[in-house]
Amino acid sequence: MSIAIAPQRGNAAGIFVSTGQIARRVLLKFVRSPQLVVVGTLQGAMFLLIFRYVFGGAIAVKGVDYVDFVVPGFITTGVLFNAMYASAGMAEDMSAGLIARLRSLPIPRSAVLVGRALADTGIQIWGLIITVGIGFLVGFRLHGSFGEALAAAGLVVLFGFVFEWVFVLIGMVAGSAQAAQGFALIVFPFTFVSSAYIPVATMPSWMQGFAENQPLTVMVNAVRCLTEGAPAEALLGHPTSYFVIRSLIWSLGIVAVFAPLAVAKYRRG
Questions:
Q1: Contacts of 31 (CB under 8 A, 6+ apart)
Q2: Cα gap 253→236, rounded to integer Å
Q3: Residue ranges of the alpha helices (H) in the chain?
Q4: CA–centroid distance for 21 within its chain
C-alpha cells in the first residue's frame, strides 16, 4: 500500500500531519482485512464465554457474582491480547521495507511509532465495545455509577495505548511477523498470575506476592472497583482510588521505559 506523507514543516503541524497519515494507513489496512476483524471479535467472544460458563460454575468469589468479577478482568487483559497484533504488524512493516522507506522521509521519527500506537489503540476500542456488549449478554451488570463506568472504559483504553509501546518494541526486535507473535506470547502467563480471572488469595502463598503487585492486577482491580463499587472494594480491601492511582503510576512507568526504547530502536534501524 502506498503512503503519502507531508514533508516536515519544522513545526508542530509536521508532527501532527505525519502521525495522522501513519495512523490512517494502519486503520485502513485493518478495515480492508475483514479476517482480522472477524477473528479478533470471535476470539474475544469465545474466551469470554469459556470463562463465564466453563469456569464460572467452579469458582466462587465472596460478595461478588463471578460474572461481575471476571468480565472487568477479561476486558482489561483483553487489550493486552489485542495489542499483540501490533508486534506482528510492526515486524511485517519492517521486513517489507516500509519502515526503511519512512526513515528516509523528512518526517519526525516519533510520528511513525506514535501513529501506529494511536491507530492500534483505536482498533482496540472496537474490540472493547464488542467485549462489553457480550459481557452484558452473559449477565454482567454495573454496580457503580455511570461516570465510574466511563472512567473504567477510559482506563482500559489508556492501558491499551500503554502496552502498545511494549509490543511495538517487540515487533522491531523480532525481525519477522512469526517471531514477533512468538515473543509477544511472553505476556500470556502474566494474565493468569493476576487477579483477572481468580482472586489472588486463592493462589499458592509463594505466588501471591508477585500476583498482587504486578501491573495487570493493579489495572484489573482499578477497573473492577470502578464497575462494581463497594462489593469490589470490600473484596479487595482497598478503596477505588488506591487502585486507580497505582494503575496510573504503572502506566506512566511503562510508557517512560518502553516508548524511549522503541524510538531508539527505530532510529538505529
A1: 37
A2: 23
A3: 12-31, 34-50, 66-95, 98-104, 109-137, 146-174, 177-184, 188-192, 205-213, 215-228, 230-236, 240-268
A4: 22
Q: Dihedrals φ, ψ of 195, to 5°?
A: -90, 15
How far is residue 94's CA from residue 269's CA, in Å, rounded to a whole number? 9
Within 154-204, strands assigned E span none
Collect all residues with Cβ–Cβ distance below 8 Å to 227 and sequence separation of at least 6: 68, 72, 142, 143, 144, 148, 149, 152
**What are 14-41's pLDDT values in tens digits?**
778 888 888 888 888 877 776 666 666 6
**Contact (CB, 8 A) for 194 and 220:** yes
* Cα-based angle 259, 109, 1 (whole degrees, multiple of 5): 105
Q: Radius of gyration over alpha carbons of the chain, in Å?
A: 19
Q: Phi/psi zone of residue 175: left (φ > 0), alpha (ψ -120 to 50 degrees), beta?
A: left
Q: Which amino acid is at 59?
A: I
- One-letter identity of residue 194: S
Any idea which residue has 512493516 for its cell?
Answer: 93
Can you tell me the distance from the alpha carbon of 135 to that of 130, in angstroms, rounded to the nearest whole number? 9
Please identify every stretch of the chain with a pLDDT value under 70, giving residue numbers as ranges: 1-13, 34-41, 44, 269
Cα–Cα–Cα angle for 190, 181, 49, rounded to 5 degrees: 60
What global pTM score does this model have?
0.86
Look up residue 32 and give its three cell numbers.
Answer: 480492508
Round to whole Å and give the CA distance between 227 and 222.
9
- Euclidean distance between CA atoms 60 and 183, whole angstroms: 34
Task: Classify 8 as helix, strand or coil.
Answer: coil
